[in-house]
Automatic annotation (TrEMBL):
InterPro entries: GntR_C, TF_FadR/GntR_C, Tscrpt_reg_HTH_GntR, WH-like_DNA-bd_sf, WH_DNA-bd_sf. The keyword DNA-binding applies. Gene3D superfamilies: GntR ligand-binding domain-like, Winged helix-like DNA-binding domain superfamily/Winged helix DNA-binding domain. This is FadR family transcriptional regulator. Residues 1-67 form the HTH gntR-type domain. One of its GO terms (molecular function) is DNA binding. SUPFAM superfamilies: GntR ligand-binding domain-like (SSF48008), Winged helix' DNA-binding domain (SSF46785).
Length: 233
């Protein structure tokens, strides 16, 4: 019954073509529309809120949710941490998921990245090199590089999925393992990815991405899952 109500509320959102942030019918209206009790409607809405499909603003009403990848990130991060503590190489598996997606995309980008994005990517690698020289962390600049690289594909869902993989990987990495850093190698590899994409050589671009992920994999596998750090939240 509860599951059926959730599906019917989702269908209502789709049928009415409601965008994120749009107001849903009130609780009494939903009770009448769905022929269900107040408790059943509330239970269904709470479940949908947990999935990011609706947003309950107490005292204001219920709205269509952000439809973000947050539940996916939570699920991926939790699954990876739990697997790690069971002795599985779950962090490597998550990394391979990212690698599979990016390797599959990079050849489509070779020679097709807009000039404005190439300028931005150049600036990001320059910033990465400055951060490396100062001994600062490269994570946020690294993230911006990958996001900018694939932006030109004009696929919003793709961007969100890549961000979700990135979020989950870095949250887990922060909680579980201290990865030995080699900032100079990281900078050199990003420069090579950029040069390969700019040159229009799809095979070279794919090789550059594989090298980059191979380097990360080596660092991850060097930190065996025997002694994970205690998660902090």
């Amino acid at each position: 019954m509860a599951r059926d109500l959730q599906e019917r509320i989702k269908k209502l959102i789709i049928d009415r073509r409601l965008p994120s942030g749009a107001s849903l019918p009130t609780e009494p209206e939903l009770m009448e529309l769905l022929g269900a009790s107040r408790n059943s409607v509330r239970e269904a809405l709470k479940a949908l809120q947990a999935m990011g499909i609706v947003e309950i603003r107490h005292g204001f009403g219920t709205y269509v949710g952000p439809m973000s990848m947050a539940p996916m990130i939570e699920g991926l991060a939790f699954r990876t941490v739990a697997g790690h503590y069971r002795g599985e190489d779950s962090l490597v598996q998550l990394l391979e998921l990212r690698e599979a997606v990016e390797t599959g995309l990079i050849s489509r980008l070779a020679g097709r990245v807009p000039e404005a994005d190439l300028v931005e990517l150049d600036a990001l690698v320059d910033r990465m090199e400055s951060e490396a020289a100062e001994g600062a962390g490269l994570a946020e600049t690294d993230r911006a590089f990958h996001a900018t690289l694939y932006r030109g594909l004009g696929n919003l869902l793709l961007g969100e999925v890549l961000e979700a993989f990135w979020d989950a990987f870095h949250r887990v990495r922060t909680d579980l393992v201290e990865l030995p850093q080699d900032p100079k190698v990281t900078c050199r590899q990003h420069r090579e990815i950029l040069d390969a994409v700019r040159s229009g050589d799809a095979l070279r671009a794919e090789e550059a991405i594989r090298d980059h992920f191979g380097h990360i994999r080596t660092r991850v596998t060097a930190t065996a899952p025997n002694e994970p750090r205690r998660p902090h939240h």
